[in-house]
Amino acid sequence: MPDKRDYYEVLGVDRDADQRTIKRAFLKKARTVHPDVSDDPDAEEKFKELNEAYSVLSDEQKRANYDRYGTADGPMGSGYVDFRDIFGGMGMDDIFSSFFGGGSAGGGRSRQTRRQGRDMAISMSVTLEEAALGCTKTISYDRLAPCEDCHGTGSPEGASEKPCPRCHGTGFVTTVQRSIFGQVQSSSPCPDCGGEGTVLDQPCEMCDGQGRTPTHEKVEVKIPAGISTGRQLRVRGYGEAGYRGAASGDLIVSVSVEPHERFERTGDDLLCTLEISMVQAALGCTIEVAGIMPDERIVFTIPAGTQYGDTIAVDGLGMPRMGGGGSRGRALGRVKVVVPQRLTGEQRELLMKYAKAAGESVAEGKRSVGEKIRDALDDILD
Fold it and tell me: Which residue from 9, 80, 276, 296 lies 20 to 30 Å from 283 (Cα-Cα)?
């Protein structure tokens, strides 16, 4: 398999090119090699190569790793997380296909008649600790964003829209066809203005008159304390940009909370396992465990006579309640009584005495010479 071409060579830019130059080069080449517009049998592979180069060089961290180590992930991987790769967000290929579907302000291709941008959806995960404390996460994804050159208007400053000469500003054209039943008249969106009724006398070169371009975006999302799996957060204005300055859609973030090694979440309660001995279960004890918050300790009071599977509750040390004004759920401890698999001679003797005092029938069992020697050594060491 041949080595990959240098990303700068793929885009046709110098290694010191700024982000605007990189984006211009990508859009210019994409308009010629994208499978939606190119007849080249290798168009799909060429666009994948172009998209890969742009996805690396348009991101500061990936580009720095690539310049230094020759790979976007660095020598041992980086802390950068691209949520579109993990959770199935739209990639640049999908975004650019949508861009071509939007069409041009000039003439000839199908055009965008819907102005407002669509909402976009993406998924992300947080740890249970992050869900308990609340945090801010940075999401990286691709979208159609307002064009930087024309500020989303679709044309340079000073340019203007004018009525479409074909439909005379109505946005529709009427066609008349002859049939055996006579003349049939129908109306359809104007192919020159896409139903807008206006055309630009000087479309923006960067966005081709749409007012938006495919962009690699980063956005910070605030995760509220107490969030649970399945909750959705809405980030206003970070969905698909609208056509020619129309309102952008929103970014809908679906959150999932990762499983925890010690706690099982049930609503706002946190359940953990408390391992105690049969003696502690019989006589009662206190067990202290680390809580979900930093430096937090939970003290469970185990009453005498506790049975296997009993649950002990401590109020106010579970998960924060969203919108609960600082209130929290319960910490729950499920008791697991651990029976020793190995007893010293002294322990065995004491348990035998207890069994006789309680009138319980137990198996005496014959102990091997090795077990007797081991018990004797244990007694000496104790």
Answer: 296
